[in-house]
């Protein structure tokens, strides 16, 4: 991946709040990127809700099919 392409990807991730950048010391061109935990915790909470919804729906469907036999 080229440096400009990598820079664009990191800029999008930073704008989306998924990563944060810190200055890389004395060289102004360097930045240290780290993942932010909060957005991923929110994503996990949403995925847990989706999983619970579909587990309930599929369980009900299974019960219906078994009763219909």
UniProtKB/TrEMBL annotation:
InterPro entries for this protein: WH-like_DNA-bd_sf, WH_DNA-bd_sf
GO function terms (MF aspect): DNA binding
Tagged with keyword DNA-binding: yes
UniProt entry keywords in alphabetical sequence: DNA-binding
Stated name of the protein: DNA-binding transcriptional ArsR family regulator
Natural source organism: Nonomuraea jabiensis
